[in-house]
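We treat protein structure as text, and this decision shapes the records that our systems exchange. The tokens are whole numbers drawn from a learned vocabulary of local backbone shapes. One such record is reproduced below, unchanged from the form in which we store it:
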Amino acid sequence: MNNNFKLKNGSGSLCMKGCGRQDRQLNTYDWLADIPGNAEEQDMVEVQFKNTRKGYYRNSNHLKLEKGDTVAVEASPGHDIGVVTLTGRLVPLQMRKANLKHEAEIKRIYRKAKPVDMEKYNEAKAKEHDTMIRSRQIALSLNLNMKIGDVEYQGDGNKAIFYYIADERVDFRQLIKVLAETFRVRIEMKQIGARQEAGRIGGIGPCGRELCCATWMTNFVSVSTGAARYQDISLNPQKLAGQCAKLKCCLNYEVDVYVESQKRLPSKEIALETTEGTFHFFKADILKGLITYSSDKNFMANAVTINSRRAFDIINMNKRGEKPESLADESNNHAPQKPIDLVEQESLTRFDKRKGTNNRKKKKKTGNDSPNKEQTPKVQGDSRRAKREPSANKGNKNNEKRNNPPLNKQGKQQTSVNQPKKNTDEKQG
């Protein structure tokens, strides 16, 4: 076979790892990477830096760049070191999403990173943690109501970006002077929110997965308690709040589904009239389309669960002046199948012995350990009978019933066992 033609993956091997985290926090899945010539169609390249910072640069030198390449880009002042995360046709779409225009002043890519550039980059990154601790102490000494969450050095080490959190407006002019004198670099202050801070720190959510803000989320949409109300979630601040002390971003994921499903249900204000009485809305399973009605407005009483179709039928009957005998549809009154509880099947105590079984066994043993004189011949008679039955009654069920009468208190079974002995004596006489 001729293997000259090979489909070139324009974004390298990193593009085929799915839509998850991959190797970068805000990595964009390039679903056009397998198209030949995709990387060469656009001269714009997406470059990502530490954590949540990324920018768009022009490949003016027409370098052959792929996803995962480390490049040196233009900065003010000097240069910065970043990683290419996207090339090709999707870059203009991402720029439009970030409200950037081609006409804007876009900086360019110098070259691929050299070993000398990587040495300076690693030296600058090694100082970030110590700089953050020292800057927090300086801010505390100046009595500033702010928290410095992270520090990011530029690739050449000439500039440092300080990310801070503050509830109020902060005058950090004096802080910038002290930081510039202490660290001998150019200082830039950037304010971030609580969600951005949680994304930069990272962690594990209550779902057991990595935080969404630390993996794939780029834009933070406002979350309100209305999202919890639409999904019938209890308004408990401890359960609704995430690690950032704000409402969980995942509350917005399924709101649209619940809103569409709720449109198929009747209004909560409509009461259903029957011959038995008036029933009011109590609760609803929005996704299953099941509604529970109660005969009392304030608490559950005589609760009946019906589907939305049955509820609309009763509403139409009430509009015509008719009243059904009951809420439940007798024609389709089938018992609902209970779902299998997988959690109950995996219970840790499912192999534990019950306390009552041991006591029963002990009672049986104690009863057998104290034999009576009257019971001993019965046991012997049963053993003799068990030996004689197979030979005398093979395949004859009627004879088994005759020869094996039930036990009684008078010991009649012993006489039946001894009957063959009497017959033998008569034959001998």
